[in-house]
Amino acid sequence: MELTKTQAFEKNQKYLFFMKPLFHFYYKRLVRKELSLTTLSKSDHILFIGAGALPLSAVYLKKYTEANITIIDNNNEMITCANNYLKSTNKDIKSLCIDGKNIDIDAYSVIFIANQVAPKSTVVNYILNHAKSNTKLFVRGVYTNEHKYLCLKCRHYLAKTKTTHLIHIT
Questions:
Q1: DSSP the chain
Q2: pTM of the entire structure?
Q3: 71 and 50 in contact (C-beta within 8 Å)?
Q4: CB of 166 within 8 A of CB of 160?
Q5: From CA 155, how far away is CA 119, in angstroms rounded?
Q6: How far is CA 108 from CA 45, 126, 136, in A?
Q7: In the beta sheet, which residues pair with residue 94?
Q8: pLDDT tens string 140-154
Q9: Which of 9, 66, 112, 126 has the highest CB neighbour count under 10 A?
Q10: Above 90 in pLDDT, residue 64?
Q11: What is the pLDDT of residue 29?
Q12: Cα–Cα dist 162/27, whole Å
């Protein structure tokens, strides 16, 4: 499987050590904005789809919510890199190599879809059709008309930031 530009960049982050503070600043700020849209707690179980090699979103979600977190990516190389990074953080975050449209999502009360997940519309539709009631779905990178339509057609649409839409599934 060929790596996307984002995957290649994240995979090589150990060689770009001077960029690490910038990565942390960006994801810390992004997660705080997303968490300002709703309340999450220690009792939530969060699924993060499209974790990539550097799962900083999951690390900050864990820090701010203390919730149970599972990250997934459909690329085994990314999960291997993510696991290596997570070992250095001492965060209890579970990881799986599986596609976002094939995972059993019953156990999750909150689901995040990363910006680089593709095809995003397929994953969003899968979640909308299979998630249990009261699941909160965060969709990052809602830039194209197709993605905006998917989010806005939901009766469950709740809130948004500049880069993320929150959908409350009822």
A1: -PPPHHHHHHHTGGG-GGGHHHHHHHHHHHHHHHHTTS---TT-EEEEE---SS-HHHHHHHHHH--EEEEEES-HHHHHHHHHHHHHHT--EEEEE--TTTS--TT-SEEEE-TT-TTHHHHHHHHHHHPPTT-EEEEE---SHHHHHHHHT-TTEEEE-SSEEEEE--
A2: 0.85
A3: no
A4: yes
A5: 22
A6: 5, 14, 9
A7: 70
A8: 876 555 555 555 556
A9: 112
A10: yes
A11: 93
A12: 14
11: left (phi over 0), alpha (psi -120 to 50) or beta: alpha
Structure tokens that stand for 53 in this block:
């090699």
**Does the bond joining 119 to the residue before it have cis omega, within 30 degrees of 0?**
yes
Q: What is the pLDDT of residues 98-122, one digit of tens each?
A: 999 999 999 999 999 998 898 888 8
Instruction: Assess contact for 170 and 156: CB atoms under 8 A.
Output: yes
For 149, the token pair is 């339509």
Task: Decide: residue 24, CB within 10 A, 0-12 exposed, 13-18 middle, 19+ buried.
Answer: middle
Structural domains of the chain in order of their starting residue, each with its CATH number: 5-168 (3.40.50.150)
Round the CA-based radius of gyration of the chain to a whole number and report it: 15
According to DSSP, the residues that pair with 112 across neighbouring strands are: 48, 138
Tell me the one-letter amino acid at 66.
E
